[in-house]
Specification:
Number of helices: 9
Shape: elongated
Oligomer: single chain
CATH superfamily of the largest domain: Zn peptidases
Helix content: 25-40%
Strand order of the largest sheet: 1-2-6-3-7-16
Number of strands: 17
Structural class: alpha/beta
CATH architecture of the largest domain: 3-Layer(aba) Sandwich
Number of domains: 2
Order of helices and strands: HHEEEEEHEHEEEEHEEEHEHEHEEH
Length: about 375
Amino acid sequence: MDMLARTSEILARLVAFPTVSADSNLELIAYAADLLSDAGATLSLSRDASGAKANLFATLGPAGDGGIVLSGHTDVVPADASEWTSDPYTLAERGDRLYGRGTCDMKGFIAACLAMAPRFAETRLARPLHLALTYDEEIGCFGARALVGEIARAGIRPAVAIIGEPTGMGVIEGHKGCYEYTTEFTGLEGHGSQPDKGVNAVEYATRYVSRLLDLGERLKARAPAGSRFDPPWTTVQVGRMSGGTARNVIAGACSVEWEMRPVQPEDAAFVKTDLGDYVDRVLLPAMRAVSPASGIVTHVVGEVEGLQVVDESEARDIVCALTGCDHADVVPFGTEAGLFQSAGISSIICGPGSIAQAHKPDEFIAIGQLAACLEMLDKLRSRLAG
């Protein structure tokens, strides 16, 4: 069986595991572990606190420092079958495309890596080749954050990480961070005819959101000179607001789900400091003047570092040489790359498929993209042998 056919066969198995972030990925991890074990890889598996999800870290070639990590997340976003032309968890080939949830984001890359594992194993590698499969990227990169800590504690020091998110096989050297929060407001319920006797959590949440929107405008002036991002500044966005029980009842509770995508770490500090001061100086005193039990609490869902563009990058140099790209771009969406970079590992993003297809009904990956990925991985194999 040729490598492209083998990759498609593995991808069909991966798609069939419905690894939505809310559910377990253990069956997929077990399948991947079997393939890698058969190829002779050394395996390390670690579970989350629930025991229902796991990271897999596999090594081929010699032990030691300076290895190259191929990293992919195993979780996918939900799929409503009624919106799909075919079963989202059954790989369907139509024309030059393979359809299924996760095909481009990012099980196509994982399938190519697993298909290539035996070829890496039969090659006398001069430095280690690691494969990292993580959980919960879609809801906060929790698996990758745990993984980089685990490999550091184990004394494993890779030099390069290639994160195979869908880039059309282009080279991405930078992206914004992604910080996600839920802010909960506790007020005091009462009859709508006497609003001064209650603390309306929805009204205070609205004032908080207004402050966020004002900060969003102020952040535009903080855009770094020459920023290559679109838009070039740090953004804030309110995704969901929920509270109250009826129009004639003072709302006793409200929650706001929001995010920011920092261009630079100091912007995140600017937003959090301003909001904290506004809450402590303005909102809470007004709320507690009526009800001392009132409160505002912000929960951190996830704070994932951006991938910072650096002058010297071994990862960029290697992947540009492998793909023939003569430049690297930046993107506004987030990945696990910043976590690897923060651990001292030179990091880059390059993988098959288009981000335009991710998180949509009838998600697909072009077969030609899988072929291009396999070509890159085979060139990496030759480079590691040299």
